[in-house]
Design brief:
241 residues; single chain; globular
Length: 241
């Protein structure tokens, strides 16, 4: 995989090849909420060996990972909803049920699971509200921008001014959920169950780990691909109005 080390951001690299996400996770680099950082900035912040990261990224094949930057805006939105939002809606009640069970059975000997269950319950409420706002307000407006740029329809009054305003709110909420998962991962010893953990306990931690990994890709697609595209479309349309 060819990269422009001093020019590309972390998010741009993952947008170019989704397999790069795994490389950044291995090196402890945040490619979703921190995706706007340049590669050198990310390495400096996390004290990552730049030559090792370069080698790992360049070893990735040019093809094989999704090049989401080439997707149409409508396809990208549909992908986010049908892949990531659907996954979140499916897994939230499942994980919450396991969280409650583990907290009830093991909370006396492992009190951290009660804290984790409380944090996840808050995450559930935040994500349900968050996705509804995206699907009812932000995403439809971005679809209008894309259609208007193709001269296939007007951009109706949004009621929120620039698209920057809801984007700022959504990205703040992304940060909040990301911090919640950082806290849960710390409480759960990197989602490593104790030796005596029952099957549900082990499953619960594995589900949290998988959910967080999906969330990283989910947020990346919005923060680093969809949102910058929407802002650029709005600016071009404003200039030509």
């Amino acid at each position: 995989m060819q990269i422009q080390w001093n020019e590309q951001s972390v998010g741009e690299v993952v947008a170019q090849n989704m397999h790069a996400a795994r490389i950044f996770e291995t090196h402890g680099i945040d490619f979703c909420c921190g995706g706007k950082k340049t590669l050198p900035e990310a390495c400096q912040e996390k004290k990552v060996d730049t030559e090792a990261l370069k080698a790992d990224l360049e070893a990735l094949p040019e093809k094989g990972g999704h090049d989401v930057s080439s997707w149409s805006t409508e396809f990208l939105i549909d992908y986010i909803i049908n892949t990531h939002h659907q996954y979140v809606r499916t897994m939230l009640p499942t994980i919450m049920a396991h969280a409650a069970k583990v907290a009830s059975v093991h909370g006396d000997t492992h009190p951290e699971v009660r804290d984790i269950a409380g944090v996840f319950q808050q995450v559930q409420m935040e994500l349900e509200s968050h996705m509804m706002k995206e699907e009812r307000i932000l995403f439809p407006y971005i679809r209008q921008l894309a259609a208007a740029e193709r001269e296939e329809g007007p951009v109706f009054s949004s009621g929120f001014g620039s698209v920057q305003n809801p984007i700022d709110m959504m990205e703040q909420e992304h940060d909040s959920v990301g911090l919640a998962f950082d806290h849960m991962r710390t409480l759960a010893n990197d989602f490593t169950p104790p030796a005596e953990a029952c099957t549900t306990y082990q499953l619960f931690y594995r589900e949290l780990d998988e959910f967080e990994r999906d969330l990283h890709l989910h947020i990346h697609l919005e923060n680093n691909v969809l949102h910058p595209r929407a802002l650029a479309m709005e600016e071009r349309l404003t200039q030509t109005a």
